[in-house]
Structure formats: C-alpha cells, structure tokens
Amino acid sequence: MDKTALKTRLLELAQSDYEDARAKYQSTVADARVARGETVERSEQSQAEAAGELAAALDEAMHDDEARLTRLSEIDFAARDTVGEGAAVHLDDRLLVVCVSTSEFDFDGLRTMGISPAAPIYKAMADLGAGDSFTFNGTEHEIKGVY
C-alpha cells in the first residue's frame, strides 16, 4: 500500500473541506453586513443578525477543519505492524486510517475513512495486528492487514 499517496489524498480532502468552510464563512459574513448610514428594515436587520450567528458557527467549523489539516500534516504515516496512530487498517470491506475523522472516500478500490484515536472502534482494535479479531458493537471483526 502506498501510504504516501494515502496521506496525500487525506490532505487533499482536508484542504478541500477547509476551503469550502472558508468560502461559506466569507459568504455568510458578507450577508451579515448592513450598510452604514442607510435605513434598514427590520426584516433585513433580522436576516443580518441570523447570518452573523451562522457566520460564528461556520467560523468554528472552519477552524476545526484547519486544525484537522494541521494534525494530518504532523502524523507519521510510516509502515506499521499494529494498529496505532498513522496506521491504515484493512477491516472487513473497508480501510480505516487512524489519524483524524474524515468523510468516506475511495482509495485503492476500498471504502476508506479517517478515524480519530479517540474513536471507540480505535480503542477496540488498538495494538492489534493482521489476523487478530475484536468485537465492536456486538459484531466480530477481523483485521485483514495493518499498513
């Protein structure tokens, strides 16, 4: 498995998420502005206030995406024999990457997603290796490979 390509793909996805969040934030901030010196109707003021509240929430999401991007850049994706941070775990019909949580994407023909080391499934499989099994949410899983 090309873990350099995997890390690159994860970084591209995180960068895209950050850029999307930033664009939404900037658009919403623009909607929240009310022209000074002009008479403003109540409905316009109300819409601007709602946009301002939404902008604050989007600002937080944008910073979360930025933090995920930074964290991904720092993680060592070297080859692994056991499940730990930076490991890619082939589990059932998917690949879980222990890094930061991401949405699902395709990598090498497998459904792939990033999971946080704080995720409950990570805690269930931490330090296990290829061929080991574990139970999570009442379902038995076999680790097909750790990369």
What does this structure look like?
The radius of gyration is 21 Å and the shape is elongated. The longest helix has 33 residues, at 42-74. It has two domains: 3-74; 88-146, no CATH class. The protein is an alpha+beta fold and 147 residues long. The chain is 47% helix and 20% strand. The chain has three helices and six strands.
Descriptors for this entry?
six-stranded mixed sheet, alpha+beta, 6 strands, 2 domains, 47% helix, 3 helices, 147 residues
Summarize the structure.
It contains three helices and six strands, in the order H-H-E-E-E-E-H-E-E. With 147 residues, the protein is α+β, with helices and mostly antiparallel strands.
Q: Which range does the strand content fall in?
A: 15-25%
Kindly report the spatial arrangement of strands forming the biggest sheet. Answer: 3-4-2-1-6-5
Distance between the termini: 7 Å
- Helical stretch count? 3
How many structural domains in the coordinates? 2
The assigned structural class equals alpha+beta
Question: Uncertain regions: pLDDT < 50 for 5+ in a row?
Answer: none
Q: Given the C-alpha coordinates, what overall shape results?
A: elongated
Largest sheet: 6 strands, mixed
**Which whole number gives the mean pLDDT?**
86
Helix content: 40-55%
Rg over alpha carbons: 21 Å
| Count of strand segments | 6
